[in-house]
Design a protein that fits this description.
The chain is mainly beta. The protein has four helices and 58 strands. Among the domains are: 193 residues, no CATH class; 93 residues, Immunoglobulin-like, CATH 2.60.40.1080; 47 residues, no CATH class.
Length: 750
């Protein structure tokens, strides 16, 4: 009987032991009920790369890394700080965390000091949105002290919270806790620490990790697995970057590992890395960004997909930033979806059409972006591929580069050729086909107002032709120009679209491109074509570069103000070393700017647009009712950082529509008089999204029916147009006739 009682008692006790065990949390014994708890994690590899750390706190000859994982649904990355010290007192886990809080105004820690187990870390926070902390305890506001610490005298960590939804914050003890992981040698596994931060002795090159356990039923959830995020430096980058003075470099970045990025090179030669993340903590771009453009005062960044498969934060196929601050104004995840909500259009390029709308090129047509609402509101009719096949919808008949010239938009379509679009109706009105056997690769506007097209295999093979095509945007007349021996045509990449290196100078009538045997991977040579002299030359040659540098992709553009070439260089796909170089317009290297180690895979340089167009005052115009008159506006506007040929003119208003009507045709103003009287025509010019206006005062004279000139007693000594150009003979419309007796007559030729 006694034996049975003992057995029963043993069974009950065994059950109790099975349901509860003691573990140490930061060195403090904790009773855990239910199940077995293992605090080792062999897959918790400590893969911190000290060469990538930018935000360093402290000074000294020893260094360590602090890694914090909030396990927040908005932010699942592991934030990384660097820590330096010399004195033994600063060489503990608690000292590192406290000194980081003191040195980084964006970081705060909740601590319980002086316990029998040393200092317990109860909470950590990061000013995610850059507007300071808003913390509460039991609903009452609390603030960290001058050292960035919230100090408490009990395990009341669960009572603290953040009132700012834009910040990262975690605190807890009973309803969650901070698990502590240590690693003395990067490359090995993190180990769960059985001692608290005060008892942790740092060694040179070690890593301390903190992970928020938000579910006490799973004590193992607080591991250190995830994507590392190396915070940007605090000291090397000014708090307020002037994004109007420098050059943006838009990057694909490392696909499969992280979302795309944008870096900024200041005019002083300093790098500001990952500016979108810097200015918008917790916000990221989409995956494989290939195109960026500043239009007006906004920066439009176009990604192929909204999120990299290796990233934890959703970005967008379209990201719109304030170009002066890089604050994100809007992100759009999908450009277009099918009836099941699945995307049918990956991002490609961007074109500002007018002050109210833009076109977004995609893998499946062109879509209309409302610039007032920042919403996709429609598509361009006839620009898609017309296929129901999902693959063809994404990769059959892509849209390449787009240009607006006067009253038309020109867009390259992979299969169909050059689309000519009416920007008023958003419809394809005409298509220009490439020479037989070829498709167009890209389109560029030159300073003289002509369009230039590269030739490419529409199959997407990457094959390029040794010819380029000049196209008059008004008459659509084509002129095919052969590249001479030793000069390759512009490389292209329909198979993995990029905007390519084919581009034009704003200051001179010159084209540039990279070229080689077949494809986009032609990164060794840049060519130059002087249009006025019809001269080809090699601009930059990297074939014998002693350091093995070559152009990555399409990352080459000409600064519209300085006329300097900006180019991103790399050594190979397995080497995360990059530089940016600048050259003058003769190909002489001016400067080289080294970058931190990262697989940037740059897409293209983008230059700030700081200048507004300047318009001329126009003379008054006299016309006669019933006779339409054309007034040239070719020289009405200029822009210091844009070519005149790219400035779009529109009729904004007519003060009296009963007197006349007015419209633009090919950049000229066409006035149609209706009755005698006067009216003002307000002409608006749009230079890359920046606007200006000028006024044309028009007097409509009553028709007299005079068909000729009475020359009795006097002879005709000169015939002129209304704007003073001399004519060989009177032409149809209004002519100014100068007589031998000094009189001036206005004559209508019907």
């Amino acid at each position: 009987m006694k034996k049975k009682i003992y057995l029963l008692l043993f069974a009950l006790l065994s059950g109790v032991f099975a349901m509860a065990q003691t573990v140490k949390v930061q060195g403090v014994p904790r009773s855990v009920k239910g199940g077995s708890v293992s605090m080792s994690a062999t897959d918790n590899t400590c893969d911190v790369d000290f060469s990538k750390i930018e935000r360093w706190i402290g000074e000294g000859d020893k260094q360590a890394a602090l890694v914090i994982k909030w396990n927040d649904s908005r932010e699942e990355r592991l934030y990384v700080w660097g820590y330096r010290w010399t004195d033994e007192a600063d060489g503990t886990g608690a000292a590192m965390l406290s000194n980081v809080a003191k040195g980084d105004p964006n970081f705060v820690a909740l601590v319980y000091e002086g316990t029998s187990y040393g200092t317990t870390i109860g909470g950590v926070g990061y000013d995610f949105d850059g507007d300071g902390f808003s913390l509460t305890k039991d609903g009452e506001a609390v603030e960290p002290d001058a050292d960035g610490l919230l100090r408490t005298t009990s395990y009341d960590f669960d009572n603290y919270a953040s009132a700012d939804e834009g910040d990262l914050w975690f605190s807890g003890w009973y309803n969650g806790y901070l698990s502590y992981w240590v690693c003395d040698t990067p490359g090995e596994a993190f180990g769960y620490s059985n001692v608290g931060a005060s008892g942790r002795a740092l060694v040179d090159g070690c890593v301390d990790g903190w992970s928020a356990v938000r579910d006490m039923s799973d004590m193992n959830m607080g591991n250190m697995v995830g994507e590392l995020y190396y915070l940007p430096a605090l000291t090397t980058v000014p708090a307020q970057v002037d994004y109007t003075k420098g050059t943006f470099i838009v990057n694909e970045d490392w696909y499969g590992h992280q979302n795309s990025t944008v870096n900024f090179l200041t005019d002083d030669g300093e790098w500001v890395y990952r500016v979108v993340q810097k200015e918008n903590p917790g916000v990221e771009l989409g995956a494989t960004v290939q195109y960026g453009a500043i239009y007006g005062d906004r920066f439009f960044i176009i990604a192929k997909q909204p999120k990299d498969p290796g990233a934890s934060i959703m970005g967008g196929r379209i990201t719109v930033c304030d170009a002066k601050t890089m604050k994100v104004l809007k992100q759009i995840e999908n450009i277009a979806v099918d009836d099941k909500g699945s995307s049918i259009a990956d991002g490609r390029g961007f074109l500002g059409v007018d002050e109210h709308k833009a076109y977004v090129g995609s893998s499946n047509g062109i879509y209309v972006l409302d610039l007032d609402k920042l919403e996709i509101t429609g598509s361009v009719g006839g620009a898609g591929n017309g296929s129901d096949d999902p693959y063809q919808q994404l990769y059959g008949g892509q849209i390449g580069n787009m240009v607006r010239v006067n009253d038309r938009v020109f867009a390259v379509h992979q299969k169909n050729g050059l689309l000519i679009i009416n920007p008023e109706t958003d419809e394809v009105e005409q298509t220009v086909e490439a020479p037989e056997g070829w498709g167009f690769g890209s389109v560029v506007l030159s300073k003289d107002g002509n369009l230039w097209l590269s030739l490419a295999a529409s199959s997407g093979s990457g094959q390029a032709d040794k010819r380029i095509v000049k196209l008059d945007p008004n008459t659509l007349e084509q002129t095919i120009i052969e590249c001479p021996d030793g000069i390759y045509g512009p490389a292209n990449s329909w198979y993995a679209w990029t905007p390519d290196c084919f581009c034009a100078s704003t200051q001179n009538n010159v084209l540039y491109w990279n070229g080689g045997n077949s494809s986009w991977f032609s990164g060794k040579t840049v060519y130059k074509y002087d249009i006025d002299s019809n001269t080809f030359s090699t601009f930059i040659d990297y074939n014998d570069d002693p350091d093995g540098w070559q152009i990555y992709g399409c990352s080459f553009r000409i600064d519209p103000v300085t006329d300097e070439a900006v180019v991103s260089l790399y050594k190979g796909y397995g080497d995360p070393t990059y530089v940016v170089r600048k050259y003058d317009n003769e190909g002489t290297q001016l400067a080289e700017y080294s970058m931190i180690s990262n697989y940037w895979f740059p897409s293209l340089p983008v230059f700030p647009d700081n200048e507004a167009p300047v318009v001329a005052d126009l003379d008054g115009v006299d016309v006669t009712e019933g006779n339409a008159t054309t007034v040239s506006l070719k020289d009405v506007a200029t822009d210091a950082d844009n070519m005149d040929a790219a400035i779009v003119k529109t009729v904004k208003s007519v003060s009296d529509a009963t007197v006349l009507t007015a419209e633009m045709n090919g950049g000229d103003l066409v006035i149609t008089p209706l009755k005698a009287g006067s009216a003002d025509i307000t002409v608006q010019v749009n230079s890359n999204g920046k606007l200006a206006e000028t006024v044309v005062s028009v007097t409509v004279n009553e028709a007299t029916g005079i068909d000729g000139v009475d020359t009795e007693g006097a002879e005709v000594v000169g015939c002129y147009t209304l704007d003073g150009k001399m004519l060989d003979a009177p032409q149809r419309g209004i002519n100014i006739i100068r007589m031998s007796d000094g009189s001036i007559r206005k004559v209508i030729v019907r």
